[in-house]
Amino acid sequence: MITLQQIDKAFQTPEGEPLKAVSSASLQIEEGDIYGIIGFSGAGKSTLLRTINLLERPDSGKVIVDGQDMLALSEKELRQARMSIGMIFQHFNLLNNRTVYENVSFPLEIAGVAKADRKARIEECLRIVGLEDKANAYPAKLSGGQKQRVAIARALANGPKVLLCDEPTSSVDPSTTGSILAFLKEINERLGITIVIVTHEMNVIKSICNKVAVMEHGIVVEKFEMNDTKFVPKSNIAQFLFNNEIILDKREAAYV
Amino acid sequence: MFDNIIYAGPEIVQALGETFYMLIITIPLAVLFGTPLGTLLYLTRPGSFVKAPKFYLVLNGLVNLVRSFPFLILMIAIIPITRLLVGTALGTTAATVPMVINAVPYFARFVEQTLLEVNRGVVEAAESMGANRLQIIWKVLYLEARSGIANCITIITVSFLSYSTVAGLVGGGGIGDFAIRYGYYRYQTDVMFFTVILMVAFVQVFQFAGNFIVRKLDKRL
User: Fold this and answer.
1) Are B38 and B221 in contact (CB under 8 A)?
2) Does the first or last residue of chain B, that is N or C, have fewer Cβ atoms within 10 Å of its Cβ?
3) Which residues 100-119 of chain A have a CB within 8 Å of chain B?
């Protein structure tokens, strides 16, 4: 479903020295996967995720989504392709001056769906995330978890094949994390949407992902399947992530 | 006790009429031209959507240039342009020309700053959905910035109420001209004082109305 090949992405820093965010990273994501990309902050995992819908254009490499070579598309074709790739964000990124209903309506308006056809679709998406009763509320009146559910409904509106999740549970409290993940899992199982999740929380990976890539300093250091019982994490970071304990050590550089 | 004020009454009404005439022309034109200009500044500034550094440099420089004129000097300096546009450099309509010329870049700068405060993440979310630039401007930037823009309109209205008083200098009339003629040239302190009270009242009303609209438009809290 998604193929990333030898992705390179560097950012220009004010000091002049370009920062290599991602170096020759390759991923193969199959249809129906819930694929986790894990690593510490600054590992380049969000940048890699964002190359899938070209929010971040890689310096070199190949991005193929649903058989389409994304880098070969014209601007117009890219916009079209993006409509079938949903995305949710750590900070939800809802339109604050639109109600929940209007937020879900937004991608449909962009896709040019007629007003009469939008209503049923919006209501269906809100039902999927269990927020029918909040349709007329503004985002400011919602909890973090509810906001993320609105974001999920919004991402589903155009019937995407892929859902990209950039730290979807990092701004919600731990008790809400489970609910968000449950909705994502349900979407994956019921609607068959391929999900890619970037996170730094091993619990997220453990609870819903079937495949994982571990990133460190812009490099994919390990890839494995979660049901592979024989798998022994080799990299420092993977072992650390598997333990998932907070180690009290003032040397922040220990793993990063 | 209010003899002077009552005597000057009809002229006060006329002067107020002239002041509002100037504002009613200036503010809508400032919004009409300043909003797209400010949006262009926002879109072309370094690191934004459109890579047009030279265009930005020129536009930004032009905005700064006009903004750097003290209003009084701008008014005199552009008299030839005023003549060209309205046929005369005297009178209320003539006074609105420098006001508009001053207000457009002023408002454009406000719009640029207000748009900069729109959360980049929301813009990015719209991009990820396949929104084009026009949709991002209309449906994201203006929507999210609308209360900020309403606030800017309040501020320039109050500012230009003040600028309009300089218009007396080119025979533009208005409340400032009136206050100078009666309060200063005729030593009628009471008339002067009365116009000040009027001005204070108007500013309060503008600000109150502006704040009310901003509150209605802002759903962020």
Assistant:
1) no
2) N
3) 106-107, 109-111
